[in-house]
Amino acid sequence: MTMNKQLNQTDTTFIISLRTRDGTEALEVIAAITNYNVALAAYEQALLVYPRQRIALKQGNNVLREHLVPGMGDLGTDFA
Question: Which superkingdom (predicted)?
Answer without folding.
Answer: Bacteria
